[in-house]
Amino acid sequence: MAAYGNESGELSDDADGAAEDAMNESALADVYRLADGRLLTYDALQEEVNAEIQEQQITEEQGRGGYWDFHDYLIESCMVGIYESVHVSSTAVIRYSDGESTWTVEQLRDEVFPAQIAGIDKDHFPGGGLSFENWLAESCGTGIYKKIQWTLPLGH
Length: 156
Prior knowledge:
- The chain has 156 residues and is an alpha+beta fold.
- It folds into 2 domains: 10-90, no CATH class; 95-148, no CATH class.
- The chain is built from 5 helices and 6 strands.
- Strands 1, 2, 3, 4, 5 and 6 form a 6-stranded antiparallel beta sheet that branches.
- A hairpin with a 5-residue loop joins strand 2 and strand 3 (39-41).
- The protein starts with 9 loop residues before the first strand and ends with a strand.
């Protein structure tokens, strides 16, 4: 399941400033707003509704010939206003962490990298210097920094 915001598929309404922090490519997605204000992905809503349905016996009137079809239910529920379909664009957000702090790649390049290599003998590296990309790859490869990536909804 593609999660938006957290692993359960719930979205936060707190996406202010996300566009300037967002990195990588954007994608379009549909989520559904519930009466209580929560936003859920299709999969998360299906899990929630199916759990409720399993507690009940479906009659022929509630299902098509006694057969439960979540997709049909969702379409009809959106038509009558039980759920609101919300189109959002999402973007992958990447941060790096040492377990105590987090940084964007730009912050690592501009702030952390210069401080980390200040005391390194640059003649020790081929070509007389260490590139940011090589430093970051080595730092992540040795576990100094961990790459953290999640999908952030925008424009809801």
